Amino acid sequence: MRRPARLALAVLLVLVGVACTDDQADRSSERLGPPDQDATSDTVEPEEPGGGTEAGPPRPVEVPADDVDALYEVPDPLPAGAHGDLLRYQEVEPGPEGARSYRVMYLSESLAGDPIVVTGTVVVPDAPAPPEGRTVLTIAHGTTGIADECAPSRAGGAAELAIAGPAVDRGWIVAVTDYEGLGTPGRHPYLVGVSEGRSVVDAVLAAGQLPDAERSDTVAIAGYSQGGHGALWAAEVAAGWAPELDVVGTFAGAPATELDIILSAAGAPGVAGFGAMIVAGYEAAYPEADPALFLTDEGTSLLDAVDEGCVGDVFAALAAASGPLVRPDGPRTPPWPELARENSPGQVLLDDPVLIIHSDEDDVVPVALSGILFDRMCGLGQAVERRVLEGGGDHGEAARVAYPQALEWFDQILAGEPVPTTCP
Known about the structure:
Layout: H1 6-19, H2 22-25, E1 61-62, H3 68-71, E2 86-92, E3 99-109, E4 115-125, E5 134-140, H4 159-163, H5 166-169, E6 173-177, H6 193-207, E7 215-224, H7 226-241, E8 246-253, H8 259-264, H9 272-285, H10 297-302, H11 311-319, H12 336-342, E9 354-359, H13 367-380, E10 384-389, H14 395-414
Parallel strand pairs: 1-2, 5-6, 5-7, 7-8, 8-9, 9-10
Antiparallel strand pairs: 2-3, 3-4, 4-6
Helix pairs in contact: 6-7, 9-11
């Protein structure tokens, strides 16, 4: 979530006041998410020379820098391989000073266990790698939309790359996934936690296969807004999905959380676009998620707008509706509340610390939502620090404050210094 929506703030704050019931608080000790993830991936039969075989993974293919479309052409069928195997890479020219930037395509796995491809962006410093290899900062990006054209790698790179640029100056590799379904076949499963988490973690594995990457197993995870949600889910799936990686900590800025509360407000004008993307994303991920149970006939008829433009276009298309988009009982009709709750992060104890940063002036994701998340994580015994930026500016402004603080927090961890927890 990225664009300001002041009406959304007012509606959600009211809902936060009425929705934090004892039943919701009890979720802190209950795992409502998908089944446990296996550390292995299904494979498919090789389709061409260069495809993966029993002798090893597929050989990454370099795509000429002047043929952007070729990077996104999906092999049919997919070559055999494991999740995180790099299939294609393309240097982006001109690159950032002191580094090389690449578009990448790599193998991953859908929620249903099917092999898929995911694209993204990776920046590799030019400076020599330390003997132990380079730390990787893997970033889950904020909401851009769920149509293919909204993939950050295709649109010139994620905004987070500029904010987190000092990570490259530290000698770190920076990897930013586009997520499943953004720029690649299928609809993006928006705010589906396991899908986001796998894409974020597999970007680390793919980044290590680029020329002269010299990646270590040390990984820092970061994200803001939708990316805060994705970062927390990446931290949750990492131990089972890529156990060889050493995740040192996770930064979640203004995280999208308490999705049942957000869906309860989906009929409000300032929230309708986010609600539509959640409904469409869940339909893509879950066979039982029938939009007609949640949306009115007009809302259902307008849902395809999510595939025809990025976030601003979606809001504009839904603003033209002549009547309500959400059924009065839609947010309470199964399976919608259950799916929303199971995709809210912070329901599993993580081995490594978490930093949450949120502005008290956030006009898109109300600060009260991360407060509920924080209380739940503290109840699990999680090492978590929550910083509320007083007068920290709106949603976008606060991101520019939060990321430098997060990088300093990662520096502390990597230096072996203790990091605080603010749990009571």
